[in-house]
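User: Show me a protein chain along with its predicted structure.
Assistant: Here is one chain, sequence first, then structure tokens.
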Amino acid sequence: MKQLSIMLLVVLLCGIGVQAQKKKTPKTKTQKQTVVYDSLLAKKLGADEYGMKKYVLAFLKPGSTKIDDQEKLFDIRQAHLKFITNLEQTGELIVSGPFMDVQPLLGIFVFNVVSVDDAKKLTEGDPAVKEGALSYEFHPWYGSAALIENAKLHTKIAKRKVAQ
């Protein structure tokens, strides 16, 4: 009986110790995250105080000319892809890609320019636009300045290049 009393006393004391410890270090549902502002990176990317900047979105659409010659269409597509790659390499195009569903909009571009006129000038050089196979619809857009880093990261994760 004496041993049982001692055991109960030990368990009770351990329980009190655990409760005291819980009061000292309360659990919180959310952890505070320390934000480290990098002013040099923000300046390099052209970020405003919110980490944002102006871009131009462009939606790729079918052009006014229907091209039935499959060989010619293939050549135009290859030239279009090369054009896109060149814009990415110069930093004028941040993100691009086709839509995956069947609809009038074919793809999207995020141009690293501040005006629609600047984006229009860039796309005038697109061989698919010159042939009338494709056209663009432009919209000014405000987004994260960090998007600029996308192209650099993409080259690190792509095993194959889309166009040569």
